Inverse folding.
């Protein structure tokens, strides 16, 4: 196989996000539930006749050398070389749908899809655990997408426990701003002492469990986020995902979500998404 096209890199939503502490090295301790949804970037892979790794589409604001897609491919190519394998280069194109700085995990998901697909195309044979360990070198959220299912998340984001989540239809709004994660996590007013919970607490108290500790900080720093939350809260339990900027609310039916979607102010980008129980490329993940 020389090519694999239309490979999804799905978004995630933080159903809640608690900051429970901060390590001496500055990393924050958190608890969250990461929910996969059916809104995704799409990546296309074509093996080359040389050893070059190239991104064949432009991504505004992201130079090729800094793109997690390219970094993931180079990292996996180096691992293959360490194992004595000679693998060809690859052209990677992306249809970018997930907004950058949106809290949806787009860059991490793109990197995870790259690792999954190239592990398959290059026949490197990394296990799922090895892929997750490799992904952690690229970012704390990457291992989640390589786990391939929804998860209760702890530590700095690397401790993952699969957790069942109920089916839902979400309305997601991007209020037109890009939120830099370090800006929110480093804010002096961020509370970092939320009491730790158990996974069973989440499972017993759905829906509406917990909160997003980053939401108040992001809302003050980015009024557009606060405006979107205020507007969406008229229709349901509106929350921010990740460090922002996207906000979302769950609806009992698609028809309810559709009705609200039609009334979203045109200044914002909005879409409807459903929950996923597993990553669309889970069949590529080894045991």
């Amino acid at each position: 196989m020389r090519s694999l096209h239309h490979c999804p890199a799905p978004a995630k939503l933080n159903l809640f996000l608690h900051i429970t502490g901060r390590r001496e090295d500055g990393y924050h301790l958190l608890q969250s539930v990461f929910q996969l949804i059916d809104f995704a970037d799409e990546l296309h892979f074509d093996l080359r006749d040389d050893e070059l790794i190239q991104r064949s589409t432009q991504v505004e604001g992201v130079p090729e050398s800094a793109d997690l897609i390219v970094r993931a491919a180079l990292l996996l190519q180096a691992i293959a070389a360490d194992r004595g394998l000679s693998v060809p280069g690859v052209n990677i194109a992306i249809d970018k749908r997930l907004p950058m700085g949106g809290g949806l995990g787009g860059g991490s998901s793109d990197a995870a899809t790259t690792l999954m697909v190239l592990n398959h195309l290059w026949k490197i044979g990394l296990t799922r655990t090895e892929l997750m360990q490799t992904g952690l070198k690229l970012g704390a959220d990457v291992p989640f997408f390589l786990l391939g299912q929804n998860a209760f998340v702890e530590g700095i984001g690397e401790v993952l426990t699969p957790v069942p989540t109920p089916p839902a239809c979400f309305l997601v709004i991007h209020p037109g701003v890009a939120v830099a994660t370090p800006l929110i996590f480093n804010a002096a007013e961020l509370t970092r002492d939320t009491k730790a919970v158990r996974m069973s607490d989440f499972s017993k108290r759905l829906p509406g469990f917990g909160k997003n500790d980053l939401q108040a900080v992001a809302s003050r720093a980015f009024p557009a986020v606060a405006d979107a939350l205020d507007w969406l809260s008229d229709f349901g339990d509106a929350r921010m995902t990740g460090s922002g900027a996207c906000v979302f609310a769950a609806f009992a039916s698609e028809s309810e979500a559709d009705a609200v979607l039609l009334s979203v102010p045109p200044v914002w980008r909005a879409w409807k998404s459903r929950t996923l129980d597993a990553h669309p490329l889970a069949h590529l993940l080894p045991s």
